[in-house]
Amino acid sequence: MLWLSLLTAAIAPGMALLVYFYLKDRYDPEPVHMVARMFLFGALLVFPTMVLQRALVLGLGESPVLYSFVYSAGVEEFFKWFVLYFVLYKHAFFDEPYDGIVYSVAVSAGFATVENVFYALLNFVTFSDLLLRALLPVSGHALFGVSMGYHLGRAKFSQQREKRFLLFAICIPILYHGLFDYILLLRTNWMFLIAVFMVFLWVRSLRKVRKANDRSSRRHLHPQEEVKMSTFS
Q1: Is the pLDDT of residue 28 over 60?
Q2: What is the rounded CA–CA span in Å between residue 49 and residue 121?
Q3: pTM of the predicted protein model
Q4: Percentage of residues in the chain with pLDDT exceeding 90?
Q5: Burial of 144 (0-12, 13-18, 19+ CB in 10 A)
């Protein structure tokens, strides 16, 4: 059935991105049940987010800047940060810098997946529409999650600068997300600008992935992994 195919196409990108970043954990993969739980938290965040966004629009009115940096980026990234900080940050499973990235991407992927499903079911979409969303909004959420998770990892294991990195963990994703949405609202040159911006986000995110893995306390337990990485670097 067509609707089932569209539903699968809407779910697949978020799951694929989550698996990709999960497998990037070189030293101590997280329990699948915990990752799934954070994915579910992210999925459930869509509902309070929609309510608050609607209330803000009614109360403050609409403008491209408000929509991009407050209603969309501000509200969505705050809720993600809130869940990660109060549910995960002091959890025993969060014991490596890269764990922040895994769990943050899980929350972001859950949010983006439900958002994508709503879009697919409530609009007359084609598979090309869903492909574009996979490359832009869904990937965007995952990459914002990498930034948030990286700085949460820095905060957790850099106690002298904990507050600074906790602030970075929410402010930088809001900035990236806001710029992303603002570019999409532009009527001229948006395709070129968003392509450049997505390349920037991917390059920066993969660097954060490498840095977070390099800060693992378990690196010395995997000398063969270090040899492999040095061979291909």
Answers
A1: yes
A2: 19
A3: 0.90
A4: 73
A5: buried
